[in-house]
DNA sequence: GGCCGGGGCATTTTT
DNA sequence: TGCCCCGGCC
């Protein structure tokens, strides 16, 4: 083990790692080495005598857990990191709940319903209750139930909770309580928990079974939490219960990056940490190692507008760097075009590869136009956030078979496969079976096993088909007793008719589906052999399902290493960094989202989201907005986001268009000064122009804000060519040239000494 | 049971 | 615009 590991840390990081006298809250600014502190803290604990299995380290994503494990492995020993209890909240407590299933009355091999399963069940229930799904919108009901569970309100207490009932009444959906109740029963009868239920049941386990709580309290001598600002109440309480006796709790997070309140995350957990742990110590990591000073300062000036936050001063000792750039576009189309042009130009400097660029947006729908333009401009890109591997229909179908084999009660999975591939068991028949299951309060599988016994009236054809289906599943279950996970998987895929069905379709999509199923099979082979190397003798389907039901990571991407520009939502970008970041669509009602306009809390969260976006950039951050945007089937005019006005112009280059139209009030200048229209002069040979690779380099140069200086993105009018946009600049003084894309005349390279140009205001 | 077309709809989504 | 869901039709 490396003896000098503490030397890798700066003073405040080291202090946090070494402190052991009580609860610690590490407020870690963007790019301040948060993961490093967490990793080294664990290494330090191991060094000072903690056994690996006594350390509980919780993250939000599998990826984060995996990366941290790898880093710890490289600093210690691989076998040491293997025995750490490190993983996502859900996977860790899934493991514990399976082990303690008897206490809570669930089968040990209970299924996990993902968001789709649970929404399908909610839809079914709404239908069964003969409610109008326009009023009882499944999405709304789902989030109501989810929020309740996150706040530890069980279906029973919901039905007695005046606040909830009043609120539902006010929203004209008084029957949510009953839907929740039915939903809960159905999940329980199916031997299934949704994601939120895992945390709720963990709380119930620890509340009602003292011996279970004591067992884990004794085992976990240290509890560490990553991304603490994203914890919800259920998670907070679990952490608190496990650590209140030992007071050995170490949480790391950044309140300024709390962007998941819509998933139940409660920033108060962080802001009020000291209320729950009175003897806690707060450490602040304020040095940003990622970004230039201008980027950090611009982000700081933005977030300063938020009221609710822990005071801290993030600073950078990197070079000053370029100012953050804000530029406008006429349309979403032109915006994409500008982004593409700048990427192309910066690429031509030879300083970057495509992977050094990311384009971030507020909504997934914005990716389409970017993709379109990137394709025509021959820019390689990849879009994140599309369906993850395990969400794909064909994968869910196969996994549904696995789930039914392991857990016969899993109703959502039975419904999914009973007629896939098509075997003539239609909707009417399924409804009959479901009806019988409901009225006799017996699982769907029991009915399928013997419909007659429950007086289900079926015609001969249907009865035969159901019997055949049943025999097939029985056969799978029998085989599953002796086969390893991948053997049974391949058997199921071929015997169920899935292979045949997929082979029928030779379209591109069809081939891709086939490949995905093949991919799943490969993944299972790999899983089994990895487990066997790890010492497990037989690796069952159950083992695989355990692993896979909480694996929604999209890390199965094959061409991940390829050099491509990244397109993703800001949410998806959290935790990542890129040399050059574009933030597009910076417009009111889009960013911040129109949905947030009614509450200050929501606006502040949107502002944090913008903060997250800016702080992804290491070298250049370019922000764009469009004045016209095609949205929801129509063209809308839009105005620049009022967030832009929160940023201090000492660190940001606003284009002239923004300055004249947005009503921007500069932070450090008299207001009147700003409103005086500036004379628009054609660029003279003396105008200091800089190369594209130096765009806005050095905020110290006064020229940055000079109104006559031509900048990338400026709209200009040429005597002969008409209106155009500056897409790149090159050369100095007499040699200064600009590439301009004219609306009608195409792209021209002009020597500015001669060009008759006017900058449009 | 599967295909087609109209109507309604449209943040973000670590698990 | 484009996706999803449902109802009607073959």
Describe the structure.
By secondary structure, the protein is an alpha/beta fold. Helix content is 44%, strand content 15%. Strands 11, 12, 13, 14, 15, 16, 17 and 18 form an 8-stranded mixed beta sheet that branches. A hairpin with a 6-residue loop joins strand 20 and strand 21. Helix 1 crosses helix 2 (34-47) and helix 17 runs antiparallel to helix 30. The longest helix is centred in the C-terminal third of the chain and has 26 residues, at 508-533. It is globular. The protein starts with 10 loop residues before the first helix and ends with a strand. The model is unreliable at 666-708 (pLDDT under 50).
Give the amount of beta strand, in percent: 15-25%
The average pLDDT value, as a whole number, equals: 85
Q: In percent, how helical is the residue content?
A: 40-55%
Derived structural class: alpha/beta
Q: Return residue spans where pLDDT drops below 50 for at least 5 consecutive residues.
A: 666-708
């Amino acid at each position: 083990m490396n003896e000098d590991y503490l030397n890798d840390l700066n003073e405040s990081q080291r202090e946090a790692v070494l402190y052991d006298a009580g609860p610690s809250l590490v407020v870690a600014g963007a790019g301040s080495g948060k993961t490093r502190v967490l990793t080294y803290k664990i290494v330090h604990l191991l060094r000072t005598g903690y056994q690996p299995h006594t350390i509980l380290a919780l993250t939000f994503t599998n990826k984060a857990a995996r990366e941290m494990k790898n880093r710890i492995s490289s600093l210690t020993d691989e076998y040491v990191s293997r025995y750490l209890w490190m993983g996502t909240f859900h996977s860790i407590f899934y493991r514990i709940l399976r082990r303690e299933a008897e206490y809570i009355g669930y089968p040990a091999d209970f299924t996990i319903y993902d968001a789709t399963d649970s929404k399908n069940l909610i839809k079914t229930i709404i239908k069964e209750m003969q409610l109008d799904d326009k009023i009882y919108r499944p999405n709304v009901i789902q989030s109501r139930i989810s929020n309740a569970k996150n706040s530890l309100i069980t279906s029973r207490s919901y039905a007695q909770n005046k606040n909830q009932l009043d609120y539902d009444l006010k929203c004209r959906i008084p029957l949510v309580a009953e839907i929740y109740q039915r939903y809960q029963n159905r999940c329980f009868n199916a031997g299934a928990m949704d994601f939120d239920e895992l945390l709720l049941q963990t709380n119930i386990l620890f509340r009602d079974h003292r011996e279970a709580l004591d067992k884990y309290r004794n085992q976990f001598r240290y509890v560490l939490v990553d991304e603490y600002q994203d914890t919800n109440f259920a998670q907070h309480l679990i952490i608190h219960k496990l650590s209140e006796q030992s007071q050995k709790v170490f949480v790391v997070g950044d309140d300024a990056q709390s962007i998941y309140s819509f998933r139940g995350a409660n920033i108060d957990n962080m802001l009020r940490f000291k209320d729950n742990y009175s003897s806690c110590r707060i450490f602040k990591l304020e040095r940003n190692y990622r970004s230039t000073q201008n980027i950090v300062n611009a982000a700081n000036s933005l977030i300063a507008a938020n009221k609710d936050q822990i005071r801290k001063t993030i600073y950078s000792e990197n070079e000053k760097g370029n100012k953050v750039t804000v530029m406008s576009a006429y349309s979403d189309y032109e915006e994409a075009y500008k982004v593409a042009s700048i990427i192309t130009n910066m690429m031509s400097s030879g300083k970057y590869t495509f992977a050094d660029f990311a384009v971030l947006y507020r909504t997934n729908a914005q990716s389409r136009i970017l993709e379109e333009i990137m394709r025509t401009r021959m820019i390689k890109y990849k879009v994140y956030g599309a369906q993850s591997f395990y969400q794909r229909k064909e994968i869910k179908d196969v996994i549904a078979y696995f789930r039914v084999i392991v857990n016969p009660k899993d109703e959502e999975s039975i419904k999914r496969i009973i007629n896939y591939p098509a075997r003539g068991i239609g909707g009417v028949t399924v409804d009959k079976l479901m009806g019988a299951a409901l009225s006799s309060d017996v699982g769907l599988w029991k009915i399928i096993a013997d419909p007659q016994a429950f007086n289900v009236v079926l015609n001969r054809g249907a009865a035969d088909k159901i019997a055949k289906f049943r025999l097939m599943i029985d056969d799978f279950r029998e085989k599953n007793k002796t086969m390893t996970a991948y053997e049974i998987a391949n058997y199921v895929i071929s015997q169920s008719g899935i292979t045949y069905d997929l082979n029928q379709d030779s379209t591109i999509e069809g081939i891709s589906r086939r490949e995905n199923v093949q991919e799943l099979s490969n993944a299972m082979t790999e899983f089994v052999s990895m487990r066997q190397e790890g010492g497990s003798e037989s690796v069952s389907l159950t083992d695989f399902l355990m692993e896979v039901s909480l694996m929604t990571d999209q890390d199965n991407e094959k061409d991940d290493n390829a050099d491509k520009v990244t397109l993703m939502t800001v949410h998806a970008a959290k935790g990542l960094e890129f040399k050059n970041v574009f933030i597009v669509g910076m417009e009111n009602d889009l960013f911040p989202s129109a949905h947030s306009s009614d509450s200050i809390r929501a606006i502040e969260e949107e502002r944090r989201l913008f903060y997250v976006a800016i702080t992804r950039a290491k070298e250049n951050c370019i922000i764009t907005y469009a004045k016209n945007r095609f949205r929801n089937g129509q063209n809308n005019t839009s105005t620049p986001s009022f967030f832009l006005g929160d940023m201090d112009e000492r660190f940001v280059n606003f284009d002239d268009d923004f300055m004249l139209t947005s009503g921007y009030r500069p932070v450090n200048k008299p207001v009147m000064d700003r409103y005086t229209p500036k004379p628009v002069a054609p660029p003279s040979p003396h105008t200091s122009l800089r190369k594209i690779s130096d765009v806005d380099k050095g905020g110290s140069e006064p020229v940055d804000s000079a109104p006559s200086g031509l900048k990338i993105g400026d709209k200009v009018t040429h005597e002969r060519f008409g209106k155009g946009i500056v897409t790149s600049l090159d050369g100095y003084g007499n040699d200064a040239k600009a590439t301009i894309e004219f609306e009608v005349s195409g792209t021209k390279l002009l020597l500015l000494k001669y060009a008759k140009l006017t900058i449009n205001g």
